[in-house]
Amino acid sequence: MSEYTTHQTLLERLSAGTDTKAWFEFHDRYGILIRATARRQGLQEADCDEVVQDVLTSLSRAMPEFKYDPSKGKFRAYLKTITLRSIISRSNRKKLVVANDFLIEQAISDSALDKVWESEWRQYHLRLAMTVVEREFNVTDRAAFDAYAIRGEKAETTARSLGISTDQVYQAKSRILKRLGTLIEDQVQVEG
To answer: Burial, 152: exposed, middle or buried (Cβ in 10 Å; 0-12, 13-18, 19+)?
Structure first.
């Protein structure tokens, strides 16, 4: 996570209200998560973009009074709530149903919707960790990992196509998985 400021520092910069670069960083960091969650709920791309904008707008309104205190709850839960509120509200507008706060809260606590958020949250952490892996590992190791660990090619096939030994394929997978585990564990400790 070295290319980003720490999670808490980013939130402090946002709440100061004068750092436009912090909003771009927030969007870079969480926009994909928010958009992917909306997409998995069946929204069209334009609606997904609007959900991202709704979340950013809600946050910009809340940030002047926002004081991040992990003992009161994780930012992750707050982000989830405003994201799901926007998705549900937008979905209900499409169905011409008026949603009141009670119905929105019931929908947010829906276990299926919660599973979508949790799945996207895990993917968010994996994507973030993979950006570090892309900087830290050479092209051959990453290609071996992608072919063998991600796409499920046989180690021998991967080795032959990359011109390396089967042992190098196994080593690349092992090193990258270990690094991903460490990165994701660190991210989860920081962000929840």
So the answer is: exposed
